[in-house]
Write a structure and sequence with these properties.
With 111 residues, the protein is mostly helical. It is 57% helix and 8% strand. The chain has one domain: Multidrug-efflux Transporter Regulator, Chain: A, Domain 2 (Orthogonal Bundle).
């Protein structure tokens, strides 16, 4: 049996996620309440974090160590998400533009 995990697969309980991110579990709970990270919940209570969540926690920690307050961190993350969304849209538009073929039909000219 092969397990298929990607960066969005929620697999880490809060204690493991906290250790991987270098934070205290209570800090992860606070970030969850603030909406900085939104782990999946199993059974309505237990949080499960993905690698993407852990990368986000590390980014929050890096910004905080650079002196950015939580309001600033939330705004930076929001702007980064908007930028990534726009990049995906631009990539899709460029792909569509490249794949559009111009077909010119010329009727046979009989002499």
């Amino acid at each position: 049996m092969e397990l298929d995990f990607d960066d969005d697969t929620p697999v880490y309980v809060i204690s493991v996620a906290a250790a991987l991110a270098g934070l205290h579990p209570q800090t992860l709970r606070q970030y969850d309440r603030l909406g900085l990270v939104s782990p999946n919940r199993i059974g309505g209570r237990n949080r499960l974090y993905s690698m993407r969540d852990i990368a986000r926690l590390r980014e929050v920690q890096r910004l905080a160590s650079d002196g950015v307050n939580l309001t600033g961190i939330m705004r930076i993350l929001e702007l980064e998400e908007q930028l990534e969304s726009m990049r995906r849209r631009l990539d899709a538009l460029e792909q569509r533009e490249r794949s559009t073929a111009l077909v010119v039909w010329r009727p046979d000219r009989r002499r």
